[in-house]
Every structure is written in C-alpha cells, then in structure tokens.
Amino acid sequence: MSTLDTPAEAVPAPAPATPGRTGLAARTWRTVRSSRAASIGLAIVAIHIVVALLAPLLTSYSPTANDASHALVGPSWSHWAGTDMYGRDVLTRVLYGGRYALGVSITATVLALAVGTVLGCVAALRGGWLDEVLGRVLDAVLAVPSILALLVIVGVLGAGFSVIVLAATVVFAPQVVRVVRGAALAVVPNDYVTAARARGERTWTILWREVLPNITDVVCVEFAMRASWVVLLISSLSFLGFGANPPTPDWGLMVSENRTAITVVPMASLAPIIALATLVVGLNLAADGLSKAWGVDRIREGS
C-alpha cells in the first residue's frame, strides 16, 4: 500500500501503547499462575529441559556404547529400565534422547516461527498481489501431507540434524504464515498502524514496532503448539528410518530398534514412548492454557 499524502503536521499523534505492547513478561507470568493447564504444561516441559541438560550428571552409562554381555536385561538396580538388544542402558538413552528431541524441535520451531511470522505480517501489511500469490503458494504447499513432505526432503538431501531442521522449517512455516497473517489482519486497520503509514515509516519498521508487539500472544501460543507437532513428526521420521542415524539416542529410533523385542524387554520401547508422550502433552497443555487465558482463538486466527 502506498504512503498517504497527508502532511506530517496534520498527522494525529500515535495512539498510546496497547496492552499487548508492554509488560509481556509480567502478563505471561500472571497468565501461567492463573491457568492450571498452562502451569502444569510448562512444568512438564521444564522438567524435560532440566533432565535433558543434566543427563550426564544423572547417569554414568554411555548412551551409544554397546555391551553384548548385558543385552536384553530386565529392570534392575544397575539398569532401572533395563537394557536394549545392544546392551545399552535404556534410561540413559531416554535421558540423552531428550536432548536430541528438544534440540531439533526447538531449533526447527524457532526458525519456522521466524519465517512464518515475517511472511504473515508482510502479507497482511502489503496485501494486494503479494497476499494473493503467497496465499496460492501456501495452499499448494499445505496440500502435501507433512510426513510425506518431510520424507521427500530428507530422502533427497539425506538424514542429519541440519537437514531435519531445514525440512521441519519448510514444512511448518506455511502453517505459521496462515495463523500469523490472520492475527495481523486484525491489527493492521488500527489507528496506530494508519498513523505510522501516514508518517512514511517503512514496512519493516511498522511490522517491528506496531504489528508484532500486538500479536505476541498468538506467536507464543503458536510456538508451543507447533513445537508439539514438530516433536511428533521428527520422532515419526526416526521411527521410519529417515531421521536420526544409529546409534544416536532418539526416542523414535529407540522404539523402532526395540519393537521386535517388546515382549522380552518392554521398557526399551515403552520408556521412550512415555517420554515422548509426556513432552507432547506438556506442550499441548501449555498452548491450550495460554490460548484460553489470553483469549487467542486459534481457529479464527488461522482462517
């Protein structure tokens, strides 16, 4: 949209900062304290993060070293969750697996959120042909199932941390664009955005100073929800053999490796499943609690 021709002296003073632009940290803390779902969810996620960071201090076993003499051992005082078919301590691999899962999912989610937020805000601000072209491209990308798109990208570029992060970013960024664009469209007509345009401010300045601070709630909720989907899809990718390479301690890979011995050492498969389930539940509880407390309608924002 072109800059308005109104003289600078005739432009009304910028509107006072809206509640969404100040005190985000304080409001977030009050929201977490007032929402039981958000409190429980964030507590579960925090436990996973702390356990993953302290993994070397919580166990003395190596997550990758094989020990054939202790293969397929049931739970004991030495191995609380038993060992897998290669003699590796299951609990140790679960603890270290949290590092891989959180590292990949957080990195991919942050990148997808950054790309999607910028594109969504720009599409809402500029509108016109840019919004139309971007919308048609997003429709084409979103028509491909996420797991299929991940398999294609990883199959072409090969497995590895950077490739998986890139694949997850490409797959999830279009979904973030749709949600952020819907939230930004509700902010663009406001007086302070119109005043910024009348002052001749650039699109990036308006995005950073006027639009983004007022959709931070939506972005935070989107981060929590998107992270849970990334964790699930990346674990599914590893389970199918296209994710982490052995002997990387990865939850999806652990389930794939030990599913044939589930009747002998069930904890070798159940332990990573429980870890994955609790992390996903925690992220979903956090997203739902924050969205309800902040009044973020994810269905409406994504429409």
From TrEMBL:
Transmembrane segments: 37-58, 100-125, 137-170, 223-243, 264-287
ABC transmembrane type-1 domain segment(s): 98-285
Membrane topology, record value: Multi-pass membrane protein
One Pfam entry name: OppC_N
UniProt-annotated stretches for the region Disordered: 1-22
PROSITE patterns: ABC_TM1 (PS50928)
Keywords of this entry: Cell membrane, Membrane, Transmembrane, Transmembrane helix, Transport
Cross-referenced InterPro entries: BP-dependent_transpt_permease, MetI-like, MetI-like_sf, OppC_N
Major localization listed first in the record, in broad terms: membrane
SUPFAM superfamilies referenced in this protein's UniProt entry, alphabetically: MetI-like
Highest taxon listed in the record's lineage: Bacteria
CDD domains to which the protein is assigned, alphabetical: TM_PBP2 (cd06261)
One GO process term, biological-process aspect: transmembrane transport
One term under GO cellular component: plasma membrane
Compartments (UniProt record): Cell membrane
Assigned protein family: Belongs to the binding-protein-dependent transport system permease family.
Protein known as: ABC transporter permease
